[in-house]
Amino acid sequence: MNARFFQNGDRNLALIKDESGRTQLTFGVNFLPMPPAVVGLMLRLAAVSPNDTVYDLGCGDGRIVIECAKTYGARAVGFDYDPRLIQQATENARNANVGSLVRFERCDLFDVSLCEATVVTLYLSPTINSHLGRKLLRELRPGSRVVSCVFEMGDWRPDKTEIFEGLPVHLWSIPNK
Ligand SMILES: C[S@@+](CC[C@H](N)C(=O)[O-])C[C@H]1O[C@@H](n2cnc3c(N)ncnc32)[C@H](O)[C@@H]1O
Fold first, then answer.
1. pTM (two decimals)
2. What domains appear along the chain, each with residue ranges and CATH number?
3. Which residue would you say has higher pLDDT here, 28 or 113?
4. Using CB atoms within 10 A of its CB, is residue 2 exposed (0-12), middle (13-18) or buried (19+)?
5. Whose CA is nearest to atom 12 of ligand 1?
6. According to the model, what pLDDT value does residue 44 have?
7. How far is the centre of ligand 1, averaged over its atoms, from the C-alpha of 136 (Å)?
């Protein structure tokens, strides 16, 4: 199975090819900001510290990335394919005075090299998460943490799940290779 995600006007779309070679066009994930308390829960669950480099795949307005730098002193990078959100995130980071700890890039999250990340944060969809699983296992170092709001990672069994106001947050640790 492989997938390509792209934008058409205001719509995020996904072109997915399954094992039998059939191609399907479905909707991708649009921006839905995470409530601030859930951002805090994600970063506490991942035990983010100043030693970490956090990648938020699908960063929206940059709130997770900015919080990593502001509260935890961590380096953080946000990736999103929507140029307006990248612009908004860059402006929000400037207003939050988080300086060079944060960076934003406009790109498809499947094209991001993850080898520098020690923590990956996700608030995407079950389809995207299950496509991402193999990439995370291949590119992240053992001991790196993955946290996902709401959606699990296919058949990965979470190390921990906490629920805040009905929203589950799951944590996994990348095993030794
Ligand atoms: C539900 S929002 C989460 C935003 C942010 N992480 C937060 O928690 O507030 C999902 C974001 O992922 C972005 N996105 C979805 N698919 C993407 C892809 N293939 N590549 C890059 N960004 C993507 C959307 O543009 C949207 O901003």
1. 0.90
2. 29-173 (3.40.50.150)
3. 113
4. exposed
5. 58
6. 98
7. 17
List C-alpha distances in Å: 3 to 108, 145, 153: 11, 24, 16
Percent of residues, the chain, with pLDDT higher than 90: 75
The span from the CA of 1 to the CA of 90, in Å, is: 34
107 Cβ contact list (under 8 Å, min separation 6): 79, 81
pLDDT in the model for residue 92: 98
> What residue owns the CA closest to ligand 1's atom 17?
58
Tell me if 78 CB under 6 Å of ligand 1. no
| CA–CA distance, 136 with 121 (Å, rounded to integer) | 11
Alpha-carbon distance of 93 to 65, in angstroms, equals 9
- Ligand 1 proximity of 82 Cβ (cutoff 6 Å): yes
**Spatial separation of the C-alpha atoms in residues 92 and 66, rounded to whole Å:** 8
Ligand 1 contact via 67 beta carbon (within 6 Å): no
Q: How far apart are CA 153 and CA 145, in angstroms?
A: 13
Probe target for ligand 1 pocket from 79, 123, 147, with the most ligand atoms within 8 Å of CB: 123
* Contact between residue 127 and residue 16 where contact means Cβ atoms under 8 Å apart: yes
User: Which of 10-14, 65-69, 144-148 has the least mean pLDDT?
Assistant: 10-14
Span 106-130, average pLDDT: 94
Q: Give the Cα separation of 54 and 78 in Å (integer).
A: 8
